[in-house]
Recover the amino acids of this structure.
């Protein structure tokens, strides 16, 4: 009897703590469709896959866009017939306590880049809520890259310090 009660307690407790595991195929498809919409310059499709409060962080330190700003920035690229092409080379999708987040390596016109983002449900559909794009720099090239951008960084730091303090 004690063993049965213990087993029943373990089953009940483990089922209370479990979360529904969402299939990564659906999430992969959402991210792939988003990248494909940029490649084919499908402005409406691209932005329909982002939440209404989405944020896009670009590779430049000045690129921290709320959705409307990002739409305005992006429109001329889409209007030319091809915005940008990001082809996934590797992707990892994580789910924890109802939060869906991912990272990916991408083949881009800038070489290999890393993207990371958060997906959230909006109107019952998973969409990109936050995305960060960065250029992947091999460790052996960091010193020369740091030297290359040193003056720009110093100027921008001064600008930010004036603005924020």
């Amino acid at each position: 009897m004690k063993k049965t009660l213990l087993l029943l307690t373990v089953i009940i407790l483990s089922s209370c703590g479990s979360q529904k595991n969402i299939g990564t195929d659906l999430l992969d498809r959402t991210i792939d469709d988003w990248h494909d919409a940029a490649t084919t310059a499908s402005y409406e499709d691209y932005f329909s896959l982002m939440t209404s409060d989405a944020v896009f962080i670009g590779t430049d330190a000045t690129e921290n866009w709320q959705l409307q700003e990002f739409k305005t920035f992006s429109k001329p690229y889409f209007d030319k017939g091809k915005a940008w092409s990001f082809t996934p080379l590797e992707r990892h999708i994580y789910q924890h306590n109802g939060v869906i987040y991912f990272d990916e390596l991408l083949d881009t016109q800038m070489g290999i880049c890393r993207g990371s983002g958060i997906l959230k449900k909006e109107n019952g559909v998973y969409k990109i809520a936050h995305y960060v794009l960065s250029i992947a720099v091999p460790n052996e090239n960091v010193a020369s890259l740091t030297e290359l951008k040193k003056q720009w960084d110093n100027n921008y730091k001064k600008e930010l310090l004036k603005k924020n303090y």
Summary: The chain is about 45% helix and 35% strand. Residues 1-20 have pLDDT under 50 and may be disordered. The longest strand covers residues 111-122. The CA atoms of residues 3 and 9 lie 10 Å apart.
